Amino acid sequence: MSTLTRVRRRRSVIALACAGALALGAAACGDSGSGGDAEPANGVPATAPFYAEVAVNDGGDAQSGAEAALRKILGTDDVGAEIERLVKSSEDPPSDEEWDDLKKVKRIGLFFTSLEGENPQGAALLAMDDIGDVDLDTDGKEKRTYKDVDYWVDGDGDVSAKVEDFVVSGTEAGLKVVVDTVTGDDVETMDDNDAYEDGLERLGAEDALATAYVDAEGLLNAVGRSGGVPAEVLGQIRQQLAQGAGSTSVMALTADADRIKVDVLGQGVTQPAGEGGGDASAVLEGLPGGSWFGIGFPGVGESLRSALQQALQLSAVGGEDVSAQVQAIEQALGVDIENDLLSWMGDAGLFVQGATVANVGGAFVVQSNDPAKSQAAVGKLRKVVGEVVTGARPRNLSGVAGADAGFEVQSPSLPFPVIVASGGDKFVIGLGAPAVEAALSPQSTLADNEAYKAAAGQLDGVQPGLFVDISAISAFVKGLGLDGDPAGAEALKYVDRFGAVIAGSGRDGDTARAQLVITLK
Known about the structure:
Blueprint: E1 2-3, H1 10-22, E2 50-55, H2 61-74, H3 79-88, H4 96-102, E3 105-114, E4 121-128, E5 134-135, E6 142-146, E7 149-153, E8 158-163, E9 166-171, H5 172-183, H6 194-203, E10 210-215, H7 216-226, H8 231-244, E11 248-255, E12 259-267, H9 280-285, E13 291-297, H10 300-317, H11 322-333, H12 337-341, E14 345-353, E15 361-368, H13 371-388, E16 395-396, E17 405-409, E18 418-423, E19 426-431, H14 433-440, H15 450-456, E20 463-469, H16 470-479, H17 486-495, E21 498-508, E22 511-520
Parallel strand pairs: 1-5
Antiparallel strand pairs: 2-3, 2-10, 3-4, 4-9, 6-7, 7-8, 8-9, 10-11, 11-12, 12-22, 13-14, 13-20, 14-15, 15-19, 16-17, 17-18, 18-19, 20-21, 21-22
Helix pairs in contact: 7-8
């Protein structure tokens, strides 16, 4: 028999298994086992406010998809051997015996039931093949028994045990929850949790590489019982989560030869569809075509207004009159935050472009609902910068196509001037004249960018709001000479096997969906 964990390694080995699987690394670490069909979800109560599960080596579609992705990422057909080489060359590698036992792990489940006290209460469940051939390390630990299940407690209060087909590691309270769930009659488990199961079905991810479930209400109740957060603050958080993320959230990670995809489904969203307006996708696609990073923000004025109001409310709960302080600052600077700034701000975008350090630049672009007000804001901000920023001497902007008004500020710490400008229905704060000119009068847009179009085509049922061209960033880094260093060259070898990152969101009734995709070459 081999020993699954040593005293000094117990937590690190479990963390290694979880992290490796989530990184697609452990999904193909060995041959598919021939043991039972134990599911960690069957050992976790349906009421758990947080649950995550990883398919490590279960021989199903999740593992096949992960192997296809890994063949591209690692550049080899022998995925298992390459993963073993990488893991065993790490700073604190597992022993041969520990590695052999890790290869028996089929699925890993992790849950929390309480956040009371200094440490969360919960446990990790490892569903394993040939569990009878796995020994737990018991040296120096106290043996205890609960409902005929023996378990061992170390000096830190962490426990380990074998409960039917699971190796369980966590807190004592967490272990007892597992025992009660596995041995109890008619105990509802995560497999019976309709929000979790229905969420996975709606995502089409019943056989995902990794899944997670969060019951926002249950999690906040657990935080509240811990006594570390005032009830008024929790109330504000609860309201905001219900409006934007819903009462429960389900996440699924899948992979294949073309992409790695993370889906998040928020269920029970209370904010009416369309409230706040805006179109992040349209803003993103209107950014300059040479951008290798771009993100869209819908209704930025309304978002900033809501954030300010929430901050003022929370400060009032803490007994501070921040509202009066804000008014004093407005009077001192001669700026009305609502009328001079927030009132005209619509959708916004942020981008970065440039193939070398010499021409890199970027800008924050806001669509103006009132061009007269946004142009007037340029003059007000020029005055504020001159009074507030030490040593700043704003000067008139010239030679930037599309700018109706603007100023620039040169800083010794930056290679390019910071520019504030308005032109037509756009307001721009940018780094470098080329970036600002591209923002005001783009020669092409991301909608025409082939890398963007290919990445956007990998999204399912959502509209894009974020784009990162990994290939362009790799070329930029190589231009800095970092590929001349052996470690840098080794890292870039793997980076070059990725194409782009694309993310987006969508809404259907009381359900919100977000998705992130990393494309593979």
